Amino acid sequence: MARGRGELALERGIELLIRLCGVSAILFVFGIFFFVFREGAGLLWSGRFSILEFFGSIEWYPTSQSRVRYGALALITGTFSVTVLAMLLAVPFGIGTAIYLSEFCGARRKETLKIVVELLAAIPSVVWGFIGLTIMNSLIIRLFGAPIGLNVLNGAMLLALMSVPIIVSIGEDALKAVPDGYREAALALGATRWQLVYRVLLPAARNGLLAAVLLGVGRAVGETMAVLMATGHSIRMPTSLLDPVRTLTATIAAELGEAPVGSDHYQVLFLVGVLLFTITFIVNMCAVRIVRGKRGRG
Amino acid sequence: MVAASEKAKRIEVADLRLSYGGREVVRGISFDVYANEILAIIGPAQSGKSSLLRALNRTLDFVPGAMVRGTIQIDGEDIARVRDVEALRRRVGMVAPLPVGLPLTVYDNVAFAPRMSGVRKRAEVDEIVERCLRRAALWDEVKDRLDLLGTRLSGGQQQRLTIARALSHDPEILCLDEFSIAIDPVTTMRIEDVLRELRSQLTILLVTNLTQQARRLSDRTMFLLEGEIIEIDRTDIVFSDKPANRMTYEYVHGVFG
Fold this sequence. Notes:
The complex is a heterodimer. Chain A has twelve helices and two strands, in the order ααββαααααααααα. By secondary structure, chain A is mainly alpha-helical. Chain A has a single domain, classed as Orthogonal Bundle (MetI-like fold), CATH 1.10.3720.10. Chain A has a two-stranded antiparallel sheet with strand order 1-2. Chain A starts with a helix and ends with a helix. By secondary structure, chain B is α/β, with parallel strands linked by helices. Chain B has a single domain, classed as Rossmann fold. Chain B has helices at residues 2-5, 49-56, 85-91, 106-116, 122-135, 139-142, 155-167, 185-198, 211-217, 235-238, 246-252; strands at 9-20, 23-34, 38-42, 66-74, 77-78, 92-95, 173-177, 203-207, 220-225, 228-234. A six-stranded mixed beta sheet of chain B has the order 6-7-8-3-9-10, with helices on both faces. A four-stranded antiparallel beta sheet of chain B has the order 2-1-4-5, with helices on one face. In chain B, helix 4 crosses helix 5 and helix 4 packs parallel to helix 7 (155-167). Chain B is globular. Classes of the chains: A mainly alpha, B alpha/beta. The interface between A and B is medium-sized, with 20 and 30 residues.
């Protein structure tokens, strides 16, 4: 059956369109990186900025009259401490819920639970911030006797609650994608359902589960409004879970509006943006490496 | 049936009915399987063959809406009343139509069931893995690459790997569900040789769409059609010019199905 010339041209056109879509994703990523970097790059070569100070000092005084200092160490530590604690809380709960939904619960309960989990994902981050500011704040003061409830723990709990829905839905998809043949084979070999989960399903769904966790991490690192409202927003190195911190994202959000366009302060905030971008990039690269490395072993 | 009935009964099925959400796929069948025989189960698609096997190791439990009525006894024990279902499943080896290599190495695939049942000593596991791979006629081909992923083997090797795996928990009964559907004739012949040798140690249920395979391998043949037994008898009688039922003759001679 010969195809018409028009049909062939259409085929080519669609192919081109799809290729454009694919290439544009890469272009956008590089484009964003380029423009963010360009806004901040001027300061790098100006002599008024030291990389050592940026990464090594906790003194962040971008608007000081006497001596301006751009030490971002406390902000980096703030972001890391809140993210790590949030993941410690969210990963076990998220993966656990995903396993329960995919393997142990009945169809009807699963539908209900999925709706509830998705509802959790639909809450705007400013509402989470408000919950942190009011409910969590007084709860932490009462439970731990902390002088103020706006701290690492508060922010981490909010971020955990915000990333759990992502981890659950991606994780459940990953488990669902494991062929039923694996389940049947393992059960036919006399595995109990728990043995099936940790010996077969978790290894088989490893890549998807890792992706779920990383998307959770991405959500936590990038989240701004909730941590701005709930972590206390004070620049210092935390020594306990009950210390207030400030994160990289919150700093950009709080200060960019007041920094004159093109000023040193404005530029350093874009450098903070580049740093955030680099962190997520490294996290993703590590994940890809881990996944490939494990595969290559076989 | 005279010769066969002298042997011990390994499986006794009485008035078995299987249904999925009200749709009956096995309609009240009764038959016995004797120790150390190969019983072939033939019949066109949708005749309830695979469901029957899944009822036998109670993996049908996991299918939503599946209902089992009637009784299946293995060595005189009603399997519906078995408490330790995992132990029951280990007594029945199961080989699926398409080789399902668990996402594990060759070694770990075979070691899976022994480890699940609590065998921990490395030497003991080593011994089981080698013995089972030898029994499945795969050892010589994989002994130098036991840590290769099972899924990297060729189709025929993978199917023998699943047979080795099904033997790894020392079952009394081995069920094969159309094992040759995805492999070449040469490998099929090799596996058939393996099964002939295993007959002395095991009872084998062979579900197959290939009537000639049933004829080559089995001692007795059961013809299932739409969930009912049309005929069960010695294989040479089922495949003769005068089986008890006209439909059997037509099916095995390719008139329909």
